[in-house]
Amino acid sequence: MNILNRISKKIDKKLSALVMAGLMGLSISQVQAADIVDLNLEETVQRAYANNRTIKQASAGREAAYWSLSAARRQSNPTVSWQGSGQKVGGSYYPTYNRSFSNTASISMPVYSGGQLEAGRETARLGLNSADLELEQTLQNVRATATSLYYYVLQCRNQIEVEEEAVSVLQEHLDNVNAQFRVGTVAKSDVLASQVQLAESQQALVNAQNAFDNAIADLCNYIGLPADTVLRPRDQLTYTKYNLNLENCTKYAIDNSPACAIADLAVREAESNRKSAKSGYRPTVNAAVTKNITGEHEFHKDITDYWTAGLSASWNIFDGGVTSSQVKQADSAIVRAKENAAAAREEVQVNVQKAFLDLFSAEKNISTTKIAVERAEEDYKIAQVRYAAGVDTNLAVMDAQEKLTEARSNYYTALYRYNIAKADLDQSMGIPVGIDVSRYVSAVENGKTAADAREEAAITDVAAEVPKAGEVAPVVTISNLDVASPIPAETVEGELTR
């Protein structure tokens, strides 16, 4: 399948619009503590986009970069200043009061800075571009983390099902062993061994429920809900074949990963800083117009009014080697930035390869563990029949049951790892959320402003709008601290045992 076709199918434009709408100030309805919330994966990610604080931090960082560029641009604007003074002198040595005043107004602006101001504007502009890409990277990271946390909740819920089934099976087996013990066909040791096995399984169930509670708390915290919210996931871990090969995934990642694009912009920023450092070799020229009004003696007599206009230039013929050192420092920074850019590409390739290999490995394990579950179920039935017929031991039955529980757990783990690997691969490839990174970079290279580049690269019309930093949301608090045991596991346990 063509990579671009796959990407276009991957992106849900409606979800992207909701994502960016959340960044523009809309918010998802608030949830009170201990409320019950039904969520699927898409809704979970949407809540993370709207409420996760790292996105809001990135939005504020983007806005700060915008104002930094605004300040750099205004360095070339005229500066108007005024300075005034007044004096009054009196006493026995002065027959009359002596008054004087002075007012000076001036307008000045840089004419030539040796390239320093131009380099400053370029650096600030690249900083704003980087902030746009960092916001997109943050969105992608939040999507991956929210997805991972949601899948872990599903995995914990599946593990509860496995442990509950194990408890149910062992309880049934213990009832059968007790019945046979009462009629004298089995020894007391079989009863004790079955009781121990059941107790261990019950402990495993408690641990699974606790893991689910913790997973729910982590997910709630990440998507901006109170930690005691009762979440009821509506999805199941499933297997959907991934139709891309490693070569296509790697190529797409190199062209679209925000990390690579940000590293490339850092190289350009370092080069711009070198231009600023080299301005020390050149003169600076400023233009100024000054208006002076002064007066002396009583009643403001002898007023003088004049103005001046002209240029002033300065040039450090020799600055002790400071500029030369700064240029060499900038050269080293360029080399470092280029090394970071190369390292970013290598890291992206490695991350894609690792995620792809994990995906492939988990895919093979899904089919293998599924067969193992079927065979373990059959083996357990045979062990039960043989034990009931008196031709096999109780230990064989418990061993078969333990292998069945392990096989079921391995199957769900393989499904979980497969879905996690898919999420990791999407993140490593740079599957877009708000803006298409490659289109954004192309627009910047063509001289587009950050706003125009965002509009050109936006996935939706809403995403094209410039994100603004909003007010800090209040801290999400927990209210039902007096509950004897966590609500989430109780809810799931009740649902699973119906």
Summarize the structure in short.
The chain contains 13 helices and 6 strands. The chain is of the alpha+beta class.
Kindly describe this structure:
- The chain is of the alpha+beta class and 498 residues long.
- It has a single domain (3-79, 114-281, 321-496), classed as Outer membrane efflux proteins (OEP) (Up-down Bundle).
- It is 63% helix and 12% strand.
- The strands form 2 sheets. A 4-stranded antiparallel beta sheet has the order 2-3-5-6, with no helix packed on it. It has a two-stranded parallel sheet with strand order 1-4.
- Strand 5 (284-296) and strand 6 form a beta hairpin.
- Helix 11 packs antiparallel against helix 12 (450-457).
Features:
single chain; 498 residues; alpha+beta; Outer membrane efflux proteins (OEP); four-stranded antiparallel beta sheet; two-stranded parallel sheet; 13 helices; 6 strands; elongated; disordered N terminus; disordered C terminus
For the largest beta-sheet, the strand count, sense and barrel status come to: 4 strands, antiparallel
CATH topology descriptor: Outer membrane efflux proteins (OEP)
Estimated share of beta-strand residues? 5-15%
CATH architecture level-2 label: Up-down Bundle
Structural class: alpha+beta
Query: Helical content, roughly?
Result: 55-70%
Quick one: CATH superfamily?
Outer membrane efflux proteins (OEP)
Number of domains: 1
Distance between the terminal alpha carbons, to the nearest Å?
44 Å
User: What is the arithmetic mean of pLDDT?
Assistant: 85
Strand order, largest beta sheet: 2-3-5-6
Spell the H/E element sequence.
HHEHHEEHHEHHEEHHHHH
Can you tell me the residue ranges where pLDDT is under 50 for at least 5 consecutive residues?
1-29, 482-498
Q: Please report the first level of CATH classification, the CATH class.
A: Mainly Alpha
Rg from C-alpha positions? 35 Å
Form type: elongated
Number of helices: 13
Number of E strands: 6
